[in-house]
Amino acid sequence: MYELEKENLRRFREYIEKFLRPSLINTFMTTYFDTETVERIISTEERSVTEAAQFLLDRMCFLEEVGWFQAFLDTLLASEYTGLHNAIKEWDFSELEGLNEHRKLLERIEPSFITHIKPSELLTHMNDCLNIREHEEIKSVESQRGLIAASEKLVKALLRSDKPNWFKVLKMALDACSFTVALDLLDFNGGGKSAMGCGSDGEADTMQTETMTVSFEFREEAENEDMLMSGNSMTVETLNRCTGEYERSGEHKLRDYQKELKDVAVQGQNTIICAPTGCGKTIVAVAICEHHLKQNPGRAKIVFLATKVDVYEQQYKLFNKHFSSTDPSIRVTGMCGDMNLSLRLLVENNDIVMMTAQILVNALQSGDLPSLELLSLILLDECHNTTGKHPYNNIMTRYLDTKLSSNTHSLPQIVGLTASVGVGSFKDKPEAVNNILQLCANLDTRVIATVTKHRDELRSYVHTPEKDFFEVPQRTCDPFIRIIRNIMSNIEQLAQKAFNIESLSNIQNREYGSQKYEQWIVSVQKSCRTIAMKDADEERRICRELCNYTEHLRKYNDALIINEDARTIDALGYLDGFFEQVRNAGYHETERKLTALYDCQRPQLLHLATEGQQNPKLEELKFILEEEYHNNDQTRTVLFVRTRALADAMKKWIEDTDSLKFLKPGVLIGKGRKSHFTDSGMTLTSKKGVLDSFKSSDQSKILIATSVADEGIDIPQCNLVLMYEYVGNVVKMVQVRGRGRAQGSRCFLISSSKDRIMKEKINMIKEKIVEEAIVELQSHPAELSNKVDVLQREEKARRDRVGASPEKPKTQGSYRLVCGKCKKFACLTDNLRVVQESHHIAVDRSMFERCITVPHKKPRNFCGFNKKEKLLCADCKHDWGLVASYLTIQDLPLLKIESFVVQDCTTDKQFYFRRWRDVTFAIREFDITELTPLTWPLRDRTANTTEA
């Protein structure tokens, strides 16, 4: 009986074993097998799921009860084994067999893949390919054993998934959660259409192409440093697209100038590699790593450091793509953001680890990485940042303290990469030399590698754009400015009546619409938070009023700055958005008075915004763009602006201008905190989308960018760089100008400030001074080495003196946190706890009686926390922080210290701290056992929750 079914189970058992997990069909087993057999299958599954499935199939072949086979099919369907159910029902496993390529790919990349995902975030997007039990098991593993164990559990579940769409769902989930590195691993290793041999319509591609044998060399196009070039001008990427795979012959060839840049570094010396943006410094870094790995087989441990997450993502992709194609045995991984991983484990189990600098700093401070001596090579991208309090300098200070304190150290080689060493302020060559020497001392290098022998070749690949200046007159008369200034003057008078605000800041000669006025506001706000009066109610009233007055002054000042560089309508829109927020928040008497002051002037402001004089700078910019695109409709432009607010305003202006709207502008801004104009910064995914659009010839033709784009980020080739009131130091000038790559490309500065134009011209002179200073230092290597030694000893002596001074201990006194705006009591510092050395929570349940919560617009997970709501003062709606869950504990207040004033419970003296690390009182470590369901019950959300 059932002989055909049993024969087919034996014939197709290899397919079934790959997918079936016996414990998920427990109801079938308990119905048709005895208890001992079921227990044996379950215990076998704990050791090996495949063996358990094999044993189950063996037992099924002895079943004789009527209906067992249909019961098996029904149980599979009820247990969400839809793919396996259909395959067994029809005895057709072709669809399941089609999943093999994806399974093999995921198995191959698993070691790197699991370090770049957070399972709990992915699970919300993967209901279509994982069942409820698998969801709960993965969540449980993450809470009990950490991210890596949970990631391994997730991968195992996917490898046994019988859902035909599991690979597509996984990629969509990675994209939704912005896990771009993990997504790139899938894409590059064959996760795209080519991995399945499919054409654009999803059907098998019938075109057959012979396997190609190529000899290729490193090449960089524009900022795309991850391109490998063959002798017949076909990139490896192109070859992959055409053939699916290829054979490699011959060794990789660098250009001669790239060999010149790497020569000293491959000899093991600490080196600064200084070469123009776009020449392929990252390719040189890859070659240095390859040589280092060959010279130190089994012992090499390389760390590549980046200054920004964006740059880390870009460089990680390049390194991973290169070594995956040339030598898959070399293990490359990366770490950034709040990945809950041990850096030491990553270093021990990989050859190259890419990361942002702060991660290495944190690992050294926490002891996760005991010493830099565990590494053999550190590469620092944009190494000119190794100054002051930058994380690079923190790392190198530890390096130098070890080197100068012991003769038995085994420190890693240091290689820095930069487009310019023109750091610090200087006015002549001796001062420039001193600054470069200090940078060399900080990086412990006696060598600056530049291109000297192969300059002609370098110039043939790297084009320096022509520089030109457009000085534009300001508006001759602008009533909008006059009205806004008059409002600001009235607000200052109101504030002065409440309190002598002139006594709260030493900043003088402030002018409306300037950065200096912004500094004055910040200074006044900081001082007014700690105003102390005998009458507590009066103190709260004054503090709240001053906060309101200064916040309105800040917004008007921002509007003047926007009006100076963009359209008046954009400045008005900015103010409209602010007052809409004020009204929606349920405003206080002072805010109603200030809103009325704006409302009575708004009709006139609107008339001026729509009918008033146009901004001459925009007219000049419009003329330049129209001319450029008339002469060359394939022009690619990067427009640099100073602020996020201006980037947004410029985008709106281009889209509203009939002759320019075809440019379809994209905006590239940093992640950062919330800006004053836009709601927030950009995620990595959104940045990638903007850059991809800019690369496409039929989409965006202009990219509007802030400083996030001038250092390191991969921007495609463009032939026009516009600096709109955008001037910095020498390093910034070199990097911004370097975005123009094509032959004949140009770089324009558009400004109404003579001083700003003069500063940029001085930067051009300083660039020549830096080049001369480098030549001088290179021509006297012994003198350079001696001076570096002296600087390092002097700095070490200074650090030792500072270190010998006793550190002021944290006080154990009792303090209270009060709202920084209205002085309402929030909680006692005795009820504060610190989690993971950086997150500060309040374990005072009564705090919810003094605050309100609103749903968070962008809930997300970080470091084990799941942020859900914003926490606001119940009286003045001041932002206190977040409400988050942590592990299994719900509704924890996660506080921002800059939102509060700290008050001594004994003396009533007040203090203000911008960062938690600056506080002078002690905070206890969080102990999860002190919170129980009795002491920390679930909160009644209807009591103090409002709509956003």
How would you describe the shape? globular
Number of beta strands: 28
Helix content: 40-55%
Q: Helix/strand-derived class?
A: alpha/beta
Mean pLDDT over the residues: 82
Rg over CA atoms: 32 Å
Largest sheet: 7 strands, parallel
Question: Could you characterize the architecture of this molecule?
Answer:
The chain is α/β, with parallel strands linked by helices and 948 residues long. Helices cover 47% and strands 14% of the residues. It is built from 35 helices and 28 strands. It has a 7-stranded parallel sheet with strand order 7-8-6-9-10-5-11, with helices on both faces. A hairpin with a 2-residue loop joins strand 24 (879-886) and strand 25. The N and C termini lie far apart (66 Å). Mean pLDDT is 82; it is low at 191-251 and 673-680.
